[in-house]
Specification:
Blueprint: H1 7-41, H2 45-48, H3 50-73, H4 75-94, H5 99-125, H6 133-161, H7 165-184, H8 204-225, H9 230-250, H10 266-295, H11 301-308, H12 310-329, H13 332-352, H14 359-386, H15 394-420, H16 429-453, H17 462-465
Helix pairs in contact: 1-5, 1-6, 1-7, 3-4, 3-5, 3-8, 3-15, 4-5, 4-7, 5-15, 6-11, 6-12, 6-14, 8-9, 8-15, 10-11, 10-14, 10-15, 10-16, 12-14, 13-14, 13-16
């Protein structure tokens, strides 16, 4: 029998959604403001690029730690601490007197995001009955694409009327609002009988975090530094050296940074495997579309933001509705449809996207297909990954899923940078087509994995039995 959803559960979900909307705002807003920041500080572009890459690397490196702390100390407590760190980081960025302070503030924001993102969903799911988890995850997952849809236009408008510092001032105000809202919530922290036996692996945690951080550093900076540069090679060597040491230490830990027992759960393993390809495809197109629109169609910044808005907006709206479908029919069908639409979207761009400026006939149909496909895959995959996971490890399980998604997104962008190279204008069209062929191939692999690995009869309400 379905349990009613309490007002407190809806309240926590609303706070979590608003907090997650801040993530694309922090990323997209900074990217759009980059030229103004560069003009203001007059710094070396390679140094200034760390306001983007520093945020991405620290988020990838510290998400697993954020998940472990959520399970160990309580999701609501860690969500609040992560938001406070994000708030102070945004505040430092707002009043930065130089580039060093700006990079430090962005790094602080990245660590804060890594702590509160996995905690935010764990905090929500502990307040919803298992039967309502697909609904809650669908709404939670919709926040990032909706934020991505609103961020470019909102950021462009801020830069039209105000200084770039107001971009971070808005993030500061948003983070403060979340902290106040959670502080006003009177109910006690809900735990899943967290067992605090065993001490933290004081040596293993920094080794694991450094291993992931070095891998992220090599992937993110590789296109800028050059894949054969000493900086990139040393980053990969450091990661390859640290990972075996970390895995050895991780084995016998009572509270491991990565809980490999989770991969004995079939749905968790399959959802993570499929998510790698879907994440790679879903993140990479955000590099292709703006470059094509700016260099081939010569769109302005605001025109680019408005042109690609339908995709994240559709993804967010569709994500909200996926919960009901999953409750009634399970995950397999919706993921097959979603990955098939990803293939169709890439085939559309291979066939119809070119130099002729005809947005509604040549581009919009592909954007529409991408939006629906993302909505039918991102939230259900996150939900499937957690559907059979014990409540005590929600934070670590979600952090593992989010880390895999982030790393594959970085890999996808690095591969596309290699495919398109320095090509611009009409001469870049063959390279763009090759990029979409690559994305179509990855989408096809994801579709085949769902068809081959997912149970044909979804255990619809395995969820209900828990």
């Amino acid at each position: 029998m379905n349990q009613p959803i309490t007002r407190a559960a809806w309240y926590i979900l609303a706070i979590s959604v608003f907090a997650m909307i801040l993530l694309p705002a922090a990323l997209t807003g900074t990217t759009i403001a980059f030229p103004e920041i560069e003009l203001d500080f007059g710094s070396n572009r390679a140094t200034l690029s760390w306001i983007l890459s520093g945020y991405a690397i620290t988020t990838a490196a510290f998400t697993l730690l954020g998940g472990q702390l959520s399970d160990r100390l309580g999701s609501q407590r860690m969500f609040t601490r992560g938001m406070l760190l994000f708030f102070f980081g945004a505040l430092v960025c707002t009043f930065s007197p130089n580039v060093s302070f700006l990079i430090a503030g962005r790094t602080m924001q990245g660590i804060g995001a890594a702590i509160y993102a996995p905690s935010s969903l764990a905090m929500v799911l502990l307040r919803f009955h298992k039967t309502h988890h697909p609904l809650a995850i669908g709404i939670w997952a919709a926040s990032v694409p909706i934020g991505s849809a609103l961020s470019p236009t909102f950021a462009s408008l801020i830069l039209e009327i105000a200084d770039w510092r107001w971009m971070f001032a808005v993030q500061t105000i948003g983070a403060a609002a979340v902290v106040i809202a959670i502080a006003l919530h009177k109910t006690k922290e809900i735990s899943a009988e967290i067992i605090n036996t065993g001490s933290l692996d004081i040596l293993g945690i920094p080794i694991g975090t450094a291993a992931i951080g070095c891998l992220a550093l090599g992937i993110v900076q590789g296109p800028r530094w050059g894949w054969m540069s000493w900086g990139t090679i040393l980053a990969f060597i450091a990661s390859a050296t640290l990972f075996p040491i970390f895995l050895h230490r991780n084995k016998g830990q009572p509270v491991p940074l990565i809980d490999f027992k989770l991969f004995s759960i079939p749905t968790f393993t399959t959802a993570n495997a499929v998510s790698l390809g879907v994440s790679l495809v879903g993140s990479s197109v955000w590099l292709l579309w703006p470059i094509h629109l700016s260099t081939v169609w010569e769109y302005s910044q605001i025109q680019i933001g408005l042109a690609i808005t339908p995709t994240p907006l559709l993804a967010g709206v569709v994500s909200i509705g996926t919960g009901r479908w999953v409750q009634n029919y399970g995950y397999r069908g919706i993921l097959l449809v979603g990955t098939a639409l990803l293939i169709a979207a890439n085939c559309w761009f291979i066939s119809f996207y070119g130099s002729g400026i005809n947005y509604w006939e040549n581009m919009f149909p592909g954007l529409f297909l991408y939006g629906v496909a993302m909505g039918l895959t991102f939230a259900p995959l996150n939900g499937a990954a957690l559907s059979e996971v014990p409540e005590q490890v929600y934070g670590r399980a979600n952090a593992t899923f989010l880390t895999g998604r982030a790393m594959c997104s970085a890999v996808g962008i690095a591969i596309l940078v290699a495919i398109i190279g320095d090509s611009v204008g009409v001469g870049a069209l063959p390279a763009f087509r090759n990029a979409f062929v690559f994305l179509a191939a990855v989408s096809t692999l994801s579709f085949l994995m769902v068809g081959a690995l997912w149970p044909k009869r979804a255990k619809k309400q395995q969820i209900e039995s828990r």
